[in-house]
Amino acid sequence: MTAVGADPKATPSAPAAADRASSRGWFTALLRRLHFFAGLLVGPFILVAAVSGALYAITPTLESTLYAHELTASSTAPAVPLAEQVSAAEQYVGGGATPVAVRPAPQAGATTRVMFADETLPESTTRAIFVDPATTEIRGDLPAYGTSGALPLRHWISDLHRSLHLGDVGRWYSELAASWLGIVALAGLGLWIGRFVRSRRGRRDLLRPNRRHTGYRRLSGWHSAVGIWVVAGALFLSATGITWSTFAGANVAELRTLVGEGTPALTTTLDAASAAGGEHAHHGGTHSSGAPSADPATFDVVWAVARDVNVNSGDLEIRPPASAGTAWVVQEIHRSFPTEVDAVAIDGSTLRVTDRVDFADYPLLAKLSRWGVDLHMGTMFGLANQLVLFALAIGIAGLVVLGYAMWWKRRPAGRVAAAPAHGVLRHAPWWGTGAVLVAAVAIGLVLPLVGYTLAVFVLVDVVLGWRARRARRSLSRGR
């Protein structure tokens, strides 16, 4: 509606033009505020995860150097039967101990790991005895953690990266970092694309920092250039890190199972007839008391059976029955390319294969998950993979530091730098506001810690907006 006497073709007022500009740029303003607050408040978690992740990336190389004596045999002569190696480890441990797993030497010159349960060690940790496969000499005695068999150095750094050595509660930090890393990266990518499209002469500066710039522009140039080169890797680390997390990881697993893309599980339960024993019962069934037993000779026998089925790589693990009525398990643990994680369950009494799982038969999402985890851990392509992860982690850590430096550089004398304009959704069209709310709810359901912290961000935004409006009203009344 035009005011009386006003020229309908007259240039619109400055406030009206500003409102229309805000309406057109609401999404960019939203990305800028999201990127700022998430980077500012979650940045410390991402920084710790990045630095500890950089350390973890190079631990396989450090581990092979630090534990060279335990991992390397004194002879490259042909290996004696696995039964003799297991017996040597049992005699060393004493007390009638029975291995819970054995990892034969993967190649000449490497040692065999015979792993025992030990109540004095933390959960998921075994006592690994390193045996020279040719001479049965005991080369070492170390705790080994989890399915990866991480030795003390790698386990310590892994626990630092995963939980800051704070147990289950500490895992919330890594989930928060992994969940928000992808969101911050996407918001930064959106801002970078917007600058690239608007820019005419400075597009090269967005791909590599302009050394002639100084102060805030120099920091911003480095932040933009480094960010665009690491954004794909940051999104990958975020996605794969989430699969290990406590809350979001469980949601992802449920979604995969719901669509039939879960990781196949090997069935180890035996039927009653098999559990009672048969003509090969002497190979290793159970004691009369029902407790698991493992005749050292059975390791060689079940290994031979597994080789004839599908377990034919050098890296493998043989596990005796975990309890009465369960099968032996022989599983490949070769995590570098090409992936070999086939597994078989074998009845120790009849030497019959009761179940098998082949990686070739994994659903697509299960394969992608396996490859993603192995790339994240740096095992897929060996040293090259580890160096790329190290550089990527350092780049992400550098972005956090640069972001804080930019925030500090913009501050007025003696004050904290102002955040990007708040209340951006007031300028958004109805469908834009609806889309943002739907996306926020969906992300919060899948990534619970993001949902909680996002609610905190919104609350902070509302409080800051209320304070700003109150300050403006007080100033106008004072005039």
From TrEMBL:
Entries under Pfam families matching the protein: PepSY_TM
Annotated region described as Disordered, given as residue ranges: 274-293
Species of origin: Microbacterium testaceum
Positions of transmembrane segments: 34-58, 177-198, 219-239, 387-407, 428-446, 452-469
Keywords: Membrane, Transmembrane, Transmembrane helix
Domain of life: Bacteria
Coiled coil: none
The protein's name in its UniProt record: Membrane protein
